[in-house]
């Protein structure tokens, strides 16, 4: 199975020229690696402009909760599909921080899946000290999947991203591969309760939070882990390409 490596560029870089430059460097590396599914999630406006995609797949960082209608500032899954988004990130903690509820996330997930977009559902607890964090993650998954038809199961990836581990967080430090391993079992168990064994067994589960060239291997070697979601380090083409090489070698 190919490792899934997703670059979340967030609200960077600040110019199209820089975006094209990072993209071109990553594209030429990705072209040589057969063991990796390389996905880049740039800001919306760069999506249709990053041409000659080669082996790179594009992802949207968000999707509107409605498919059409008078929603100023929103971008629908249909539009995103039309400009080449194969994937979409749904329910990122930075969106949740802006007020996105579990209900909104569920609707966004549904819109994205309905348009045939592979959807990366982000879940994760806010504080490291939260004792009940597996329960929090379980609730996030159950609420997002509630009412989502099981036939969409093969189009979903779950990204476990503890918020405290994200590099922009005040204490941002990567989680341990061991904890990711335990959480991946727990997440699979939750999906089993919702959708049954076959969906749970096939579900790709990835880790995100302060991944870099030093710690990527540990997360990529986890049995049952399907890849990683990389934020800050993905904006440095050299560093990201090194992560791709590490993934390819596993
Ligand atoms: C993210 O926010 O999705 C993320 C993984 O960020 P970082 O790698 O910068 O922690």
TrEMBL record:
DNA-binding as UniProt keyword: no
Pathway of action: Carbohydrate biosynthesis; gluconeogenesis; Carbohydrate degradation; glycolysis; D-glyceraldehyde 3-phosphate from glycerone phosphate: step 1/1
GO MF term (any one): triose-phosphate isomerase activity
Main subcellular localisation: cytoplasm
Entry's Gene Ontology cellular component terms: cytosol
TM stretches of this protein: none
GO BP: any one term: glyceraldehyde-3-phosphate biosynthetic process
Key words, A-Z: Cytoplasm, Gluconeogenesis, Glycolysis, Isomerase
Similarity remark: Belongs to the triosephosphate isomerase family.
Assembly information from the UniProt record: Homodimer.
Name of the featured protein: Triosephosphate isomerase
Organism: Candidatus Giovannonibacteria bacterium RIFCSPHIGHO2_12_FULL_43_15
């Amino acid at each position: 199975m190919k490792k899934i490596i997703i670059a979340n560029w967030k609200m960077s870089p600040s110019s199209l020229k820089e975006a094209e430059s990072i993209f071109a460097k990553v594209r030429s590396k990705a072209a040589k690696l057969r063991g990796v599914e390389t996905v880049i999630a740039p800001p919306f406006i760069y999506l249709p402009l990053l041409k000659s995609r080669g082996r790179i797949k594009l992802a949207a960082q968000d999707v509107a909760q409605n498919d059409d209608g008078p929603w100023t500032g929103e971008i629908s899954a249909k539009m995103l599909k039309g400009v080449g988004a194969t994937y979409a990130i749904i329910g990122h903690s930075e969106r949740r921080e802006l007020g996105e509820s579990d209900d909104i996330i569920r609707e966004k997930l549904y819109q994205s899946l309905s348009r045939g977009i592979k959807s990366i559902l982000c879940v994760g607890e806010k504080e490291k000290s939260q004792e009940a964090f597996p329960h929090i993650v379980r609730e996030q998954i159950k609420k997002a999947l509630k009412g989502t038809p099981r036939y969409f199961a093969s189009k979903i990836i779950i990204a476990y991203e503890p918020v405290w581990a994200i590099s922009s967080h005040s204490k941002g430090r990567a989680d341990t591969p061991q904890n990711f391993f335990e959480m991946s079992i727990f997440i699979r168990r939750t999906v089993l309760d919702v959708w049954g064994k076959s969906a749970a067994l096939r579900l790709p589960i990835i880790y995100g939070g302060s991944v870099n060239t030093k710690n990527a291997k540990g997360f990529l070697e986890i049995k049952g882990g399907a890849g990683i979601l990389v934020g800050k380090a993905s904006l440095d083409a050299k560093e990201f390409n090194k992560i791709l090489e590490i993934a390819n070698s596993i």
